């Protein structure tokens, strides 16, 4: 299973225990479909919000053990069995839907705290759901998972500035922008200057620090899960390397991982 739209979701690869792959895939398709409802096509914001509300109703229905409606049967039929077998925490699934709806209503964030509040709903539930499947419950592991997932979300933001800004989505904290003398109009026009690059460099350092705080989680997860997480962490850090290598000019272009980055990530994962 490859991940294209929902980039913060770890791949259900050969590293994932076979017994958990159906559950991971079911959660992935739930998140992927919600993402498409929020972002794909030509529907209005109000129509997207209405679709997400109907999607939420189906989620709540299957969580109570009822049969899914025909509209998203391919998503919710597998998820019904996952709820039954693994007792998934419904609030985490609903947090993801809250984040998708938030993206339709809010396109600016005043400071880092409010942006992390968005990450708490958009990214952190994925890590917590995976820890739930692996039976990891302790508070330190959850905190480290949140740090990794929030870092991945931030990295995706700084990677995708050239994509998000034309869609009127500005995730750079306005408080940080103001410290560099940058107004919203300058950023929305993607004016690549020394000030914008310095701002992005600071955001990159923030994401790297957050990833470092969560990285010890790789040693708390059993077997294959720990190795998969190593690659997830190193993938995020490699994107930060690429942003730094292009002198933080992500207002102009989007850095990508290439095939030749894989050996670097594998080597760094082995050294963790």
UniProtKB/TrEMBL annotation:
Which Pfam families does UniProt cross-reference here?
Answer: SQS_PSY (PF00494)
User: Which domain of life does the UniProt lineage start with?
Assistant: Bacteria
Protein name, UniProt field = Squalene synthase HpnC
- Read off the CDD domains from this record: Trans_IPPS_HH
Q: Which InterPro entries match?
A: HSQ_synthase_HpnC, Isoprenoid_synthase_dom_sf, Squ/phyt_synthse, Trans_IPPS_bact-type, Trans_IPPS_HH
Q: What is the lineage of its organism?
A: Bacteria, Pseudomonadati, Pseudomonadota, Betaproteobacteria, Burkholderiales
